[in-house]
Batch of 2 targets.
Target 1
Amino acid sequence: MAAAPSDQVTACVLLIGDEILSGRTKDANLSYIARHLGEMGVQVREARVIPDVEEVIVATVNEVRAKYDYVFTTGGIGPTHDDITADCVAKAFAVEIGYHPEAMEILTAHYKETGNEFTDARKRMARIPEGASLIPNPVSKAPGFQMGNVFVMAGIPMIMQVMMDGLAGRLKGGRKMLARTVSCEMGEGQLAEGLRALQETHPSVTIGSYPFFFEKRYGTSIVMRSIDEEELGLVEEEVRALMLGLGAAPIDGEVRGGQGPKEGAAAGAS
């Protein structure tokens, strides 16, 4: 498992599925996972969308599980031939995969209760890498699993969410990421030089610039993020001073509405 400072816990999300890459399915999982983990003090540092290709999944899982404290995958654990995530995770950890007794028991009872046949295809959902622990699935019963620091979950958002909710006792968070937002009716190009200097002076605070164009108003929202509340407050005051020094009145929070394209798309926006 990747080593991290005691006050920071990091994560990567792997969205697995050809249907996402083709545009057939629109991902609805990443934002939920990131928000859920953020509330626990786990920072999502990277997210990738990868295809249902064995060598890609195996290599990616091995890469990111060594780099981050936690890895969360979605997709590829259903009953069809292209659901290969469980097999790939087993290969990544160099362990065997087989029918998990508890998973078989859960699914046998479920299909008996529903009156549906427990087919060989459905039994694929009980195949779990050796040594893994199950992640409960109260919705459709087919479990996910945890292998080391890798959490393998369903791609269907409703099922992924209940699996995620069930992980609270297994995850250890660090200090929560805090955020402050200040906006002004000035193009980001005018703020850019001052923001660059602030970022160099305060590396522990991430400073993001986001232009807006709303109801014939254009301007920029500056979002500052850090786990250090004192440093974050200092940067916020310096951003406000930068805006005032350039002749723009700071506005608390983000200006809501349609986000305009960056640099110069709105007339005079830069």
Target 2
Amino acid sequence: MPVSDKVLLEAYNVALRGGTGIATYVKNLAEAAKSNGYAVDGLLHSNSKLDRDDALLGEVGFYDARNLKPSQFALLIESNWRRGIGVPLGIAAQRLFSSGLIVDSGAASLRAVGIFNRTYVARLFMDFSRFHFSRYGCAARLRLPEKPDLFHATQMIPLKVPKAANIYTIHDLVPILLPYTTLDDKRFFLSAVRHLCKTADHIVTVSEKSKADIIALTGISESRITNTYQAVSIPPELVSESEDELSRVIEKRFGLVYKEYFLFCGALEPKKNLSRLLSAYAESGSDYPLVIAGPLGWDYEEILERIKDERFAGRPVAGTASRPHRMVRRLNYLPYTHLISLMRGARALLFPSLYEGFGLPVLEAMSVGTPVITSNASSLVEVAGDAAILVDPLDTGALTRAIQDVDNDQDLRRELGIRGPAQAKKFSAEAYKERVGALYRSVLGASP
């Protein structure tokens, strides 16, 4: 194995409070690269300049509350300045010292450092690289104390490491294909995608659908783009509880009854199609509540108002007639351990998204044997296979009927619970390790 080769992963999302789908992607990618024998380092973001002369002060500064929650006025002044001149001298990254003295609070930034062999920090590199590209039409240079053999940007960011192989993951083209569902700067996004597809050593994506979209948009040669898919690897301790134990956990932690609630996981944003989901759920007449688990995204005000709809108020949950519940409940960001428990205990996962580059919640639900209703659109068809009920996400009536079918048919739920784990095995950590290893060896010119 190429143990001497060093890989640097851009890991901006890993340290974000609350986590993101890309954060999960980075963690899985780091594990896959390590298992192929690569030395894996990470690039994290800082809002403030860190002390370069005193390593301990640099470390303290990274975790300082003033860095985690900086002055928005100061950032605005800096952004306006950099927007005009970019970063012609490059973006400097420094090694983050790990003294072991910082008390572990469970914060994402603390846990992020532990993922990598070495951690580098670059100030505002996401913003500065965007400003530089908009000003000069080329990727900003990342200056490092030690050059990696391969730099892998885990999202669409115009940043490169000179004299290293540079590859970029483009998860999907949602800002272009569904411009009404995002607030992204479409001009920047399209220009950056086209530029990276011309100049990168390789482009990575996470589904055959996204790969086809990127080829159609940019004309990139099929030999220069690879679909690695994603992976799910749920720790055994999170799925080892018996049904009785899990039932007690769900009752105490969430006030829910095992297998007597539906679940949606994801941010509240237009792409997730929650308005149609709420309509379909209301029309289904189910006696079981719908739990919406996820942070606020954008354009969510209507969804929050609809959750308060009187049709969803005051009905008792089946099996708990003595205690009324709201029929639609929203839970904000949950730790991964809580989310998996909630997913295992659900009657079904409802995920009728308009478009997904991959659709990790579908894979996670199938892997723990929870029935899934999802869209017959984008990559979700690839992920779900024949192990889920697929519906047109624009057809509220079809979604209503699917909810009713799963709700009322125990045999169907049992069958989907058997098919799900079998389908999920196609996206195992071992299969992902092989795909990532083949990709990195190809880019670095190493023999298999």
